[in-house]
Specification:
The structure is a homodimer of 178-residue chains. Chain A is of the alpha/beta class and 178 residues long. The first copy, chain A, has 5 helices and 11 strands; from the N terminus they run E-E-H-H-E-H-E-E-H-E-H-E-E-E-E-E. Chain A has a single domain, classed as 3-Layer(aba) Sandwich (Dihydrofolate Reductase, subunit A).
Chain lengths: 178, 178
């Protein structure tokens, strides 16, 4: 069965990016070198589902495409022609709802999906498509920005799986969704 | 010198109460028995500053008044006559701004102040009157409610002091405000 997995960084006040999508608050606290578990995580998934904003943020970084696995961009406004030609063998666009998208990916043999971006994570949580979440909290309050969480129709109970600190001041918490 | 200290519980999505101020989501995860450090914390302060909402929530619990130290309720709408008579030797109302209030308490010999309630904590953070924060995160997403953080004019950088788990699934993080 296909499952969704979250691995994301936030400020202590729960933002994954500033209002203008910048991540300077995260980068400046990055110790560079400490193992966050990201590589093991990305090596464990068959592909990534992200939102348009996350996709465009990653594109905006320039440089080499960072993902070693296929990416699906959830968007009703993007077309395949909006994907840079060099990425079309690795990136596709889908306008499907979360459950339909996951069913389609399951049919293609995907088992573990990295679910990324605030809106997409919230939609997948609401649809009960997330199995576990690893949240890495940066030691800063930024006051405003794009939230990770918010807006659920009902509570989502979690089991704490692990907690640890990562120098120079990050806290990484891992939860299983009940 | 007088200093402000935060000790508070939130949901993983950063709420300290539901929109109707209820704490059922917190109570239901309470393991009952595990030492959260609250007693040692409350024993370390000279008094408490809280907002009107927090005060009225505590009053609404009924039962014995829970605080062993003096309480100042920050409010521009409450009058001293709104404080139940039985509490008037332990609870006062102040309409002062955070810095003025702290200066006044300093003059009365207070050294460590427990700062409680979302609005009051945010106002004290903004005024740089908080020295450290202990945040205990419950393993649940509630989707909406009264937020702990939000709305700062500029970033507040933190030093991570400690992190630990508290059965049956809480994570307690301690930060010093830089």
């Amino acid at each position: 069965m296909i499952t969704g997995h979250v691995f994301i960084a936030t400020s202590l006040d729960g933002f994954i990016a500033r209002t203008d999508d910048s991540l300077d608050w995260l980068m400046k606290h990055d110790g560079g070198g400490a193992d966050t578990g990201y590589q093991a995580f990305i090596d464990s998934v068959d592909g990534i589902v992200m939102g348009r904003t996350s996709f465009q943020t990653v594109l905006g970084f320039g440089g080499a495409w960072p993902y070693p696995v296929p990416v699906v961009v959830m968007s009703r406004s993007l077309a395949s022609s909006d994907i840079p030609e060099a990425l079309r063998d690795r990136v596709e666009v889908s306008a499907a709802a979360p459950a339909d998208l996951m069913a389609g990916l399951d049919g293609r043999g995907w088992r573990r999906v990295y679910v990324d971006g605030g809106q997409v994570i919230r939609a997948f949580l609401e649809a009960r498509l997330i199995t576990d979440m690893v949240v890495t909290v940066a030691p800063v309050l930024i006051g405003a920005g794009k939230p990770l969480f918010g807006g659920l129709a009902r509570d989502i109970d979690l089991d704490l799986v692990a907690v640890r600190s990562i120098p120079p001041g990050f806290v990484q918490v891992s939860y299983r969704v009940k």
